[in-house]
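Below sits the subject:

***
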Amino acid sequence: MNEDGVRPAAEVTAKEITFSLADLPEVREFAAVQARERGMSEEAVGDFLVALNEVATNAVTHGSAKARLRVRADGSALVVDVHDDGRHWRPDGEPGQTPPPENATSGMGLWVARLLSTDIKVRTGADGTIVSMRFPI
């Protein structure tokens, strides 16, 4: 809320869902609906869902059993925040900057998400971890 007690328009139109590992198919469907309703092209929805799935999967497999997804429009971008309650991760540097080793079978999620989004930020601390990504709409 701003100093007048009014929520910014982006907060009013934000949609949120809480999920666990078993809920990932519903999370993808929820996110796809939100993206399409906000004007994301069909061609872009697939890459958006790959990035989102990587981050959401990380949240409920490495962070905490439950996580939250928040989706909102911000001008010509769709912004998604994935928040888990995991407090033990202390990344060295900016996560997802370095490609995984050639024969890696895991550890690619944030790198893939960084490639598919226009911006990604990772914040971790006492309140857990939040990964925020932006996608054009």
In short: The longest helix spans residues 42-63. The two ends are 25 Å apart (CA to CA). The mean pLDDT is 87.
